[in-house]
Amino acid sequence: MTLRVVEWSTGTVGRHAIAGIDARPDLDLVGVWVSDPAKVGRDSGELAGLGRELGVEATNDRDALIALKPDCIVHTAMTDDRVMEAIEDLIFFVSNGINVVSSGPVVLQFPHGILPDSLLERIEDAGRKGNASLHVNGIDPGFANDALPLAMTSLSQRIDEVRCQEIADYSTYYQPVVMRDLFGFGQPMDATPLLLAPGILSMAWGSVVRQIAAGLDLVLDEPLLERVERVEADRDYSTVSVEIGKGTMAALRFEVAGQVDGVDRVVLEHYTRTHPEQCPQWPSPNDGDGCYRIAISGEPEMAVEFSHHGEHGDHNVSGMIVTAMRLVNSVAAVVDAKPGLVTALDLPLVTGRGLVAGR
Length: 359
Hints:
Helices cover 27% and strands 26% of the residues. By secondary structure, the protein is of the alpha/beta class. It has 2 domains: 3-136 and 319-342, Rossmann fold, CATH 3.40.50; 147-307, no CATH class. Strands 3-2-1-4-5-6-15 form a 7-stranded parallel sheet, with helices on both faces. A 6-stranded mixed sheet has the order 8-11-12-7-13-14, with helices on one face. A two-stranded antiparallel ribbon has the order 9-10. Helix 1 packs across helix 10 (315-328) and helix 4 (83-95) runs parallel beside helix 5. This is Diacylglycerol kinase. Residues 145-350 form the 2,4-diaminopentanoate dehydrogenase C-terminal domain. Keywords: Kinase, Transferase.
C-alpha cells in the first residue's frame, strides 16, 4: 500500500526528507509546507536540490495541506526556539486524523517524567480523537541513543552502566540559533546560554536517559544529574554558524546522568568541539569528524562506535540525512501504531525497505 505524505519544511533536514520520501516506493509526496514566502510556489524537487521537478509545489497554506488528508506528515521544522508552539502544531495534526513523525521537540522522544501529565494527556486525547499517532525521533535524541543501545543490551548478562556519547566537530554544522543562542558558542564565558540554564539539559536529553531506563525497567533517582564543562577559545575560530572570538566559549562537554541509589546507571554524554584541534584530552572519533559511541559496562563489556559521512559532504551533512531518514523510514510503522504518542519502545524493527540501489 502506498502512503500519502506531506513534508513540513524544506530546511537542513526537510530537504533530505523530501529526497527520502521520493526514494521510497511505498510513499507518495502529496504536499510540502514552507515558512519562507519566497519558497511558495516552487517545486519541491528544486527545493530539495534533486535537480528535477517532482510536480509538488510548496505552500504556506496549512489548511490546504490538512485538506489533502495525508496518511502522515513528516515534520522537520525548527522547534528548538518554539517548543510549546510546535507541540500545539503536532496536537492539531493528530487531532485532525493525520499521523506524524517529527524531529522535534526532542523532549517528546520520551516525555514521561519531564512534561506535565496534563500536557501528555492532551496529546493522547488528540491521538484518540483523530485515531492518529505521533512519533518524535531522529539520530540524537533518537536512534543513536534509543534503538541502538537498547538493542545492544539484549546481549548483556549483567548491566552496570549504559553510556551514550556524541563526539563531534560542529564547525560545519549550520544552525546559527542552535550554535550561538542555545549552546552558547561565541558567547562570553560568564554568559548562561539557554541549554545551560538549570534543568534544560535534563529536559532536552533527559528523555534519552529516561527511555533507556524504562527499557531496562529501572526506577531512577530524582532529579537527573547535569554535569557541564565549558572550554574557552585560545584563539579566534570561524564556523559556518558563528564567529568565536578568543576568550569566548568554544567547546562544551555535558552529561545527563540517571542514577539508582546514587550510582550512575544510564548516562548521556556529549563532546562538542568547534574545531578538530580543540581539547585533545577529550575522546575523538576513530573514523571521521564525528561519531556516536555506546559503551555498556557489565558482563560482557561492550562498545560500538557508529560514524557516518555524506557521499559528497561531511558528517554534519550526513547527520541531517540520517535524522531525516530515521523519520521517513518510520512512517509505515507509525501509521500502523496505536493512536497517541509512540516511542521507540513501541515500534517494531524499522528498516530501509525499498531503498536498495538499482531496484
